[in-house]
Request: fold
Amino acid sequence: MSHFGYLAMLGFTVLGSFWLEIVLRVNVLRRIRRAMKSILPVAFIFILWDGYAISRGHWAFDAHQIMGRFGPLRIPLEEYLFFIVVPLAAIMTMEAVRRVKGHWVVGDEPIQ
Amino acid sequence: MSYTQIAVMAVLAAVCFDRLILKTSLITRKAFWTSYAIILPFQLLTNWWLTSRSIVQYKSSTIVGWRIASAPVEDLFFGFALILGVLSLWVHWGKEKQK
Reply:
């Protein structure tokens, strides 16, 4: 058992999505302020949920498969990273779909 | 509240956020559902990794017990709410810029 079991999943998510930034030029990292303004408020609510769930024992993490660093609410560092990495991957995915399907409306197109 | 209850509430809240509060209506867009269809297999795969290796463990009394690729079905609700919430805000800030 490796302490990087959870971290490996995050690494996989980064590998699986960040190439879109280079190959399809989704420009999400280049719009990191807008990305963070979209991620942080939602992540905040999910972190409260996470803290509640951990405190009530809804879920627990195997101490042998996480790095063992914890943030506020006794939430493992990996969880905090999860709430950044996964939403970033989701935004990149939608921007990639927009790149490929240019005529599909997303809702924030410039008014012609 | 159980994980099941919170997860269902989270989906309803995310849908309200998208449809009623931000009025981004992503859930009516092909672009959103196509993105979700791409994301879902990756969610199942990464969730399978976390749950089948017991990196994350769930208390059985807090979930209904239906599992998909070893992960509780509630995780799909959790993931959907997270993604819809973030993508709605992303589109919202994009719309703001156009004003």
About this structure: The interface with chain A takes residues 2-3, 6, 10, 24-26, 29-32, 34-35, 38-39, 42, 46, 49-50, 53-59, 62, 79, 82-83, 85-87, 89-95, 97-98 of chain B (CB under 8 Å). Chain B has a mean pLDDT of 97.
